[in-house]
Design goal:
With 291 residues, the protein is of the alpha+beta class. It has 6 helices and 11 strands. 10% of the residues are buried.
């Protein structure tokens, strides 16, 4: 009676929870057991053979190979028609002898795929390129384990320095109406047309149609006629840079001459001129770009 009374007084929710745990426990264990049974029993030997390069050797136990071969042959005995035998009645030895090559190739592909997937899951490998592995050159031996090896390039592994707590300075720029106007003008410039600016007073963004000569002292290096140049704060040329171009030519009118210092690069063909600052004179007609 005492036992019956305790059973009746027991909390129904607690009893249900105990029942659920009891029911779930074996199911979880069964799922884990099934997953483990599907895994191949293999050993992996990895060694570094160079910067970011590894040599990997994988050995799959013979029991796994025999298990897959036995399963494949059993399926073929039941399903594969063989001349001289009723369906499903052909001796297994006949099936093995007749389809040995096809079956071993199928099993080889299955084992390689499963083995490589398992290798990636169980080992810390981050390949950069596919492994130099040719399945056609790998054979399943008649006896002993199944072994294959390959080389692969991997990502470098290194310890990160302590970066927490670093302070960064973020530059902040406030865009003005002038900045917006200048950007609009830059975007629309390719769709505009050149018109004369009779009053002159060339400004940044205008174009100069000019005759240009380059001199090193009294020596004339080059002369150009009727070339068009945009007025920017800095003018980059093929063999040099005019750092203050905009300031030098700003305000120019038709017929004016302006002298601009140019620093030549160290790639000038004439070694005597490398990194020098010759003078460049301009006789210009100021123009504007109409949007």
């Amino acid at each position: 009676m005492a036992d019956e009374t305790r059973t009746e007084d027991q909390d129904p929710d607690a009893a249900a929870a105990v029942a659920d745990k009891t029911a779930e426990g074996p199911a979880e264990k069964t799922e884990q057991t099934e997953e483990e049974s599907k895994k191949l029993h293999q050993t992996v030997d990895m060694r570094d053979i160079g910067p970011c390069k590894k040599h990997i050797k994988v050995t799959v136990e013979r029991a796994d190979i025999d298990k897959l071969l036995d399963k494949k042959y059993s399926e073929m005995v039941a399903e594969t028609p063989v001349p001289g035998f009723r369906p499903g009645k052909a001796p297994r030895k006949v099936i093995e002898r007749r389809f040995h090559k096809d079956v071993t190739e199928q099993v080889r592909g299955q084992v390689l795929l499963q083995s490589l997937e398992q290798l990636a899951d169980e080992n810390d490998i981050a390949p950069l390129t596919p492994p130099n592995l040719d399945p056609s050159k790998i054979e399943i031996p008649k006896e002993g384990p199944f072994i294959y090896e390959f080389e692969v390039e991997v990502r470098p592994q290194f310890d990160l320095p302590s970066y927490k707590g670093l302070k960064l300075r973020r530059p902040v720029k406030t865009f003005t109406d002038e900045d917006v106007t200048a950007e609009e003008r830059r975007l629309l410039a390719p769709y505009g047309s050149m018109v004369p600016k009779p009053e002159g007073n060339a400004q940044i963004g205008d174009y100069l149609v000019t005759d240009m000569s380059t001199r090193d002292g009294q020596r004339v290096l080059s002369t150009h006629k009727e070339i068009t140049v945009r007025i920017d704060p800095r003018l980059a040329l093929k063999d040099g840079v005019a750092s203050h171009f905009g300031d030098k030519v700003k305000g120019a009118r038709a017929g004016d001459k302006r002298v601009v210092d140019i620093t030549l690069s160290d790639n000038v063909a004439d070694e005597a001129l490398r990194c020098k600052q010759p003078l460049r004179s301009r006789r210009s007609r100021a123009c504007a770009c109409r949007k």
